[in-house]
Amino acid sequence: MLIYCVEDDESIRDLVGYALRGQGYGMEGFGCADDFYKGMKKAVPDLVLLDVMLPGEDGLSILKKIREREANIPIIMMTAKSSEFDVVRGLDLGADDYVTKPFGIMELLSRIRSVLRRSGKPTDKKGELLSFGTIRADRNRHIVTVDEKEVAVTLKEFQLLCYLLLNKGIVLSREQIMQAVWDIPFEMESRTIDMHIMSLRQKLGGEGAAIRTIRGVGYRLGEREK
């Protein structure tokens, strides 16, 4: 499940991204309208978090354009404005919900789940079949297959693979992976991730090359290394 966050404050964008990826969502952040529109041409998200006060074109204008083109995308407005007028205007333009800054991450996650439920989109990702190339991970049956042949993996290898599949194409830092899969600070076991990645690559055979090392950052599941 992919969520776009349109927010010009990089610190807020990073915090939201960290929280969403930790919950298993795919997330991409944009600092302005132009970057967001480019992202929309590449992939339509399952939900948009949209700041009102943006440089150049503001969030309400973006909201109006989204509703003219993609009527069914759930949208949650994020705003520092607390006046009733701004809230009503956003809702009238088609926003599904709103949060007022400063907001708590738990509140934001709760509102995201609520909006997704109302929109009919699944909020429980355990029943999804995740895939990339010939790799398949069935989160309901806890089974991994490559070329329709079952591959034996450990619990942590399975969780790690699912996290990569949920965020395919996105560079994930070691800190993000450690927090999402092991739920412990990155500094405690820096080699743990590398060892599990190495094991996964071996077990996935030729498809294992799709797990790419991004030097100095972390890993990305994407185009295979040549």
Per CATH, the architecture of the largest domain is 3-Layer(aba) Sandwich
Q: Which stretches are poorly predicted, pLDDT < 50 over at least 5 residues?
A: none
Q: Note the beta-strand portion.
A: 15-25%
Q: What is the straight-line distance between the termini? A: 28 Å
Give a nutshell description of this structure.
The protein is of the alpha/beta class.
How would you sum up this structure, described in words?
- It is a single chain.
- With 226 residues, this protein is of the alpha/beta class.
- It has two domains: 2-119, Rossmann fold; 128-221, Arc Repressor Mutant, subunit A, CATH 1.10.10.10.
- It has eight helices and twelve strands.
- The chain has helices spanning 10-22, 33-42, 59-69, 84-92, 105-119, 155-166, 174-182, 190-203, and strands at 2-6, 26-30, 47-51, 75-79, 97-100, 129-132, 135-138, 143-146, 149-151, 172-173, 211-214, 218-221.
- A five-stranded parallel β-sheet has the order 2-1-3-4-5, with helices on both faces. A four-stranded antiparallel β-sheet has the order 6-7-8-9, covered by helices on one side. A three-stranded antiparallel β-sheet has the order 10-12-11.
- A hairpin with a 4-residue loop joins strand 7 and strand 8.
- Helix 6 (155-166) crosses helix 7 (174-182) and helix 6 (155-166) packs across helix 8.
Q: Can you tag this structure with a few keywords?
A:
Arc Repressor Mutant, subunit A; 226 residues; alpha/beta; 4-stranded antiparallel β-sheet; 5-stranded parallel β-sheet; elongated; Rossmann fold; 8 helices
